[in-house]
Write a structure and sequence with these properties.
Blueprint: H1 3-28, H2 30-39, H3 46-54, H4 59-67, E1 71-73, H5 75-81, E2 93-96, E3 101-105, H6 115-130, H7 134-148, H8 154-166, H9 171-182, H10 188-194, H11 201-263, H12 265-316
Parallel strand pairs: 1-3
Antiparallel strand pairs: 2-3
Length: 326
């Protein structure tokens, strides 16, 4: 009977140790438990699964993506979930901190195929960055800043500069997402980091480069047209001034010849050939000017066609209050 209290105490101690051990395991794996809870009953849609596959997210990247229960949305719904589209890059989406959701704007223009995928990878990487430890972020931020100093891509440099002005506290976070999804060649240290989330990071960067080219190629063609129009306009104006001057000279000589025809046939005949040369020169310049005007109008038409295509692409990324891609 004397051993009963002792045995009871041992049992209580064992149970306490087991309970403490369980709590310790639970604490050590609290993120996994939270993720399990968030993913309970979740089945990604076919579109979401296809995006994860197209962007070559690996197991961890896909897990982070799915934990946020990503949704593809039309303009009106997307505007409600992401009323302030802070992204300044060529994507449209938002990540709500604390793994509270990833929302993607559905883009239906086939010329912009890849926008949804790049957006998804960009937002997933925000979730990934949020889970890094303070020490990991410190080391990573240094690598991101160092790489930024070597950048030659003006578009991305301007994007980062904009973030530096408007959201300096999120600069490294944005660089982390932008560099991975929009730049083909990265330093080995960054490639090693991104390999935590992608089996082939360049797959998503290739998509970004491809659809960004839909904008840049048109802008380059418009710029080329504008240069040609500027040169043609200057030439046309110079020719028109010359035609005005030559026409005045022709009118003057015509009046003089009319007077000479009656008064001095010899003088009249001697000046006819010069007058005819001037007429031929005038007519040649007139034809050239007309050809230049036609060429100018043709270029204007071609430029307007490309400009319309660019506006259509921009509108495909900007509907009902959404900001256009920059």
């Amino acid at each position: 009977m004397q051993n009963q209290p002792k045995t009871h105490r041992i049992r209580v101690l064992v149970l306490l140790l087991v309970w403490l051990g369980f709590l310790g395991v639970l604490y050590a794996n609290q993120q996994r438990v939270v993720d399990w809870w968030k993913l309970r009953g979740y089945t990604p849609s076919a579109d979401v699964t296809a995006i994860a596959q197209a962007t070559k997210m690996n197991e961890l990247g896909t897990h982070l993506f799915y934990v946020n229960r990503p949704q593809l949305m039309e303009a009106a719904t997307f505007s409600k979930e992401c009323p302030i589209a802070a992204e300044k890059t060529i994507i449209l989406g938002c990540y709500k901190g604390g793994d509270k959701g990833i929302y993607l704007y559905r883009v239906n223009d086939v010329r912009l195929q890849g926008v949804e995928e790049v957006t998804a990878a960009h937002e997933m990487l925000h979730a990934a960055y949020a889970r890094l430890s303070a020490n990991e972020k410190k080391q990573l931020n240094k690598q991101l800043e160092d790489f930024f100093e070597t950048l030659t891509d003006d578009r991305i440099k301007q994007t980062i500069a904009s973030y530096r002005q408007t959201e300096p506290t999120e600069l490294a976070n944005e660089m982390h997402s932008i560099f991975a999804t929009e730049i083909l060649e990265l330093p080995s240290s960054l490639e090693k980091h991104y390999a935590r989330y992608f089996s082939d990071r360049k797959a998503v960067a290739t998509l970004a480069v491809r659809y960004q080219a839909e904008f840049t190629s048109r802008r380059e063609r418009i710029a080329g047209y504008d240069t040609a129009l500027t040169g043609l306009k200057q030439e046309i104006e110079q020719n028109q001034d010359a035609l005005t001057s030559q026409k005045a000279e022709l009118d003057l000589q015509q009046n003089q010849l009319d007077s000479l025809r009656k008064a001095d046939a010899v003088a009249y005949n001697s000046r006819v050939s010069d007058y005819n040369r001037l007429v031929r020169s005038y007519n040649a310049l007139l034809e050239q000017t007309r050809a230049d005007i036609k060429k100018y109008n043709d270029i204007v038409e071609a430029r307007n066609t490309i400009a319309l295509e660019e506006r259509q692409l921009t509108q495909a990324l900007s509907a009902e209050g959404l900001p256009a891609a920059q």
